[in-house]
């Protein structure tokens, strides 16, 4: 299963990256259904079925009684999530592993501050069970039960869910009980009548149409440890080519360059390894914390004061690269660190580790589908150990390109002379770019564009873009000047774009009014209605329901790099805009990361932006169509069209 799953992800990502339009590509479900189930052993008080003998109809496919059989932990075999639909409707969803089933009559629900009214059950199947006789069971891979609450006495309540299931291989789990704390949204109108959510009527053994992050969470439940870690290592490799990791390249490269001519390949490798391991450990700890507590630790480091401080640090490091001064610690402290951490000229192992730590928290606060899937798994199962291992494997995959770049930088960089000074200047400019990249999420578009323009134009001047060509000038010097001219032209374009209301650094000719001298581009983007908190969202959803319109609900933050990508590359696409013309577009700006924002995260089980939810005209979210992380315009357009077919 892992091989198919990883192959599909590589195939899809390569197609998107290369801009290849593939007709009718295989779906993730197609590839998952081709794979076999690999389970992890667990000893959780499992009880054998009566006499340990499965039904006669199943004996041909079951192992012999003396053959060793591995069974899933009950939390993984029956993965339960509970979500609130509106102020009086709750949905319980089980993702049931292949080869397992739930007893219909063993499901019970009790709430402390409300009574349970109507219960909408999915169709069940009669099974001749050796323990209970003929019983009704759920063998489908997704079981959805919708509850209507009555006599509600508080908007917060504890819901106790009792259930029991078995494995067809011959073991029955003991009855299970989970108590979940829920926060009910406020009613939108006093007279609003809620119709229970309809549930699927067809039973199919195929994998249900789940969102990508839910499929990943389910994959974590079903497969063995080795393939899981290998899979998420592959996910990390793919994520390493995203803007979440790119800013770490000049940071690490600058550390390597700062060591000077005495740096060996072995030392460059060790410094790079320390940086990557520190980054990976930080991602792991922050991810486990988010999964267990339900709060994104990285979001707390996106406060303006934190970003400004670290931007100033990068500026200081950049000017050190330019040769304005040398950054040195006090001699006494330097001597102690030399003994403690094998101090080298220009930096320490401890300092490199700290830089990796802060890079993970501040530079790359991205939430992509693989990360969201792991966090969902941790939050629902409480398995921080296995989830943490998957996170660490994901982080190592993200760090491998950094490790290669850092090590090769130590090998390929010149040892001394003018070329070494030129290389230091290049990385000094890259550090300034990283500092501005951190600050741009706090600034207006005009200031952002002017800042990039200034950096490019000043760099071009130092590269000799305005100097005349001298006789006998070397080819390298001519190349250097040519690059400087490109920087100069692009910097001027950015200044013009800033003065004309431009927004995107990568598209300086895409102006606010949608026209230039060379092209006419509709760049107004999508017009979102901003909502704040659960109450604001519920009111907006109620209005959309009354109008009979579907809803797209977007989680956005100024400090979210992938959110900026969605704005610049996806929401500006004409096909996307046309496809969404009949939608009500809602957006929650969670930049402040305050109590209302955190409550909204918790309401939907989301750990950070970007995340996009889709609602039908009945006001009910279709969870299978959730989007987490940056999605290219063409892929997003196709996703919307598939969603519209369900309306």
TrEMBL record:
Could you name the domain of life of the organism this protein comes from? Bacteria
Quote the InterPro entries the UniProt record gives. Cyt_c_assmbl_TM_dom, DsbD_gamma, DsbDN, DsbDN_sf, Thiol_diS_interchange_DbsD, Thioredoxin-like_sf, Thioredoxin_domain
Documented EC number(s): 1.8.1.8
According to the record, the residues making up region (Disordered) are: 32-62
Q: Which UniProt keywords apply?
A: Cell inner membrane, Cell membrane, Cytochrome c-type biogenesis, Disulfide bond, Electron transport, Membrane, NAD, Oxidoreductase, Redox-active center, Signal, Transmembrane, Transmembrane helix, Transport
Query: Which cellular component, as a GO term, is one annotated location?
Result: plasma membrane
Catalytic reaction list? [protein]-dithiol + NAD(+) = [protein]-disulfide + NADH + H(+); [protein]-dithiol + NADP(+) = [protein]-disulfide + NADPH + H(+)
Query: Where does the record place it?
Result: Cell inner membrane
This protein's membrane topology, according to the annotation, is:
Multi-pass membrane protein
The residues that cross the membrane are 225-257, 269-293, 305-327, 348-378, 384-406, 418-439, 445-466, 478-498
Boundaries of every Thioredoxin domain copy = 498-645
Which SUPFAM superfamilies does its entry note? Answer: Thiol:disulfide interchange protein DsbD, N-terminal domain (DsbD-alpha), Thioredoxin-like
Any GO BP:
cell redox homeostasis
Query: Where are the disulfide bridges?
Result: 166-172, 244-366, 560-563
Decide whether keyword Secreted is in the record.
Answer: no
What range does the record give for the signal peptide? 1-23
Keyword Disulfide bond set for record: yes
Q: What class of enzyme is it?
A: oxidoreductase
GO molecular function list: electron transfer activity; protein-disulfide reductase [NAD(P)H] activity
Q: Which family does it belong to?
A: Belongs to the thioredoxin family. DsbD subfamily.
Function comment: Required to facilitate the formation of correct disulfide bonds in some periplasmic proteins and for the assembly of the periplasmic c-type cytochromes. Acts by transferring electrons from cytoplasmic thioredoxin to the periplasm. This transfer involves a cascade of disulfide bond formation and reduction steps.
State the protein's name: Thiol:disulfide interchange protein DsbD
| Organism of origin | Beggiatoa leptomitoformis
Gene name of the record? dsbD
């Amino acid at each position: 299963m892992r091989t198919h799953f990883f192959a599909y992800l590589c195939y899809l990502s390569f197609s998107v990256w290369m801009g290849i339009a593939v007709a009718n590509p295989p779906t993730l479900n197609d590839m998952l259904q081709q794979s076999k189930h690999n389970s992890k052993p667990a000893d959780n008080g499992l009880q054998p079925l009566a006499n340990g003998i499965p039904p006669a109809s199943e004996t041909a496919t079951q192992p012999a009684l003396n053959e060793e059989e591995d069974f899933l932990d009950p939390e993984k075999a029956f993965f339960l999530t509970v979500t609130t639909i509106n102020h009086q409707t709750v949905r319980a969803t089980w993702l049931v592993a292949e080869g397992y089933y739930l007893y219909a009559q063993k499901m019970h629900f009790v709430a402390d501050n409300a009574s349970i009214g109507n219960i909408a059950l999915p169709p069940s199947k009669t099974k001749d069970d050796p323990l209970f006789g003929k019983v009704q069971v759920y063998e489908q891979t997704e079981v959805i039960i919708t509850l209507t609450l009555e006599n509600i006495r508080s908007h917060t309540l504890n819901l106790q869910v009792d259930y029991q299931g078995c494995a067809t291989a011959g073991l029955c789990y003991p009855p299970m009980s989970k108590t979940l704390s829920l926060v009910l949204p406020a009613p939108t109108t006093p007279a609003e009548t809620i119709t229970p959510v309809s549930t699927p009527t067809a039973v199919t053994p195929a994998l249900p149409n789940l969102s990508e992050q839910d499929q990943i969470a389910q994959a974590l439940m079903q497969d063995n440890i080795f393939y899981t870690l290998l899979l998420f290592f592959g996910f990390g490799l793919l994520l390493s080519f995203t803007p979440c990791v790119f800013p770490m390249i000049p940071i690490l490269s600058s550390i390597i360059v700062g060591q000077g001519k005495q740096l060996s390949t072995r030392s460059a490798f060790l410094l790079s390894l320390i940086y990557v391991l520190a980054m990976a450990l930080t991602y792991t700890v922050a991810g486990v914390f988010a999964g267990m507590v339900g709060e994104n630790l990285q979001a707390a480091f996106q406060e303006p004061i934190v970003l400004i401080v670290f931007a100033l640090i990068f500026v200081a490091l950049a000017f050190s690269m330019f040769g304005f001064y040398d950054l040195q610690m006090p001699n006494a402290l330097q001597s102690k660190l030399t003994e403690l951490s094998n101090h080298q000229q220009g930096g320490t192992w401890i300092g490199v580790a700290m830089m990796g730590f802060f890079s993970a928290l501040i530079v790359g606060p991205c939430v992509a589908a693989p990360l969201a899937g792991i966090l969902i798994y941790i939050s629902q199962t409480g398995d921080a150990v296995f989830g943490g291992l998957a996170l660490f494997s994901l982080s190592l995959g993200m760090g491998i390109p950094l490790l290669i770049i850092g090590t090769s930088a130590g090998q390929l960089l010149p040892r001394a002379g003018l070329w070494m000074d030129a290389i230091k200047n290049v990385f000094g400019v890259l550090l300034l770019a990283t500092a501005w990249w951190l600050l741009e999420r706090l600034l207006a578009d005009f200031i952002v564009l002017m800042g990039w323009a200034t950096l490019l134009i000043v760099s071009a001047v130092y590269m000799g873009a305005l100097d005349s060509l001298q006789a006998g000038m070397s080819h390298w010097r001519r190349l250097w000047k040519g690059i400087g001219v490109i920087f100069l032209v692009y910097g001027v374009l950015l200044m013009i774009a800033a003065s004309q209301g431009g927004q995107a650094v990568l598209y300086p000719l895409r102006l606010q009014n949608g026209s230039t001298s060379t092209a006419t581009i509709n760049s107004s983007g999508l017009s979102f209605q901003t909502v704040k908190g659960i109450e604001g969202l519920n009111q907006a959803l109620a209005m959309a329901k009354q109008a009979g319109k579907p809803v797209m609900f977007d989680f956005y933050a100024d400090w979210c790099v992938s959110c900026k990508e969605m704005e610049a590359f996806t929401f500006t696409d004409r096909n996307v805009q046309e496809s969404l013309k009949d939608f009500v577009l809602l957006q929650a700006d969670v930049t402040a990361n305050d109590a209302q924002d955190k409550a909204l995260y918790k309401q939907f089980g989301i750990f950070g932006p970007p995340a996009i939810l889709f609602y039908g005209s009945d006001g009910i979210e279709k969870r299978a169509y959730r989007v987490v992380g940056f999605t290219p315009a063409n892929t997003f357009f196709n996703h919307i069209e598939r969603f519209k077919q369900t309306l």
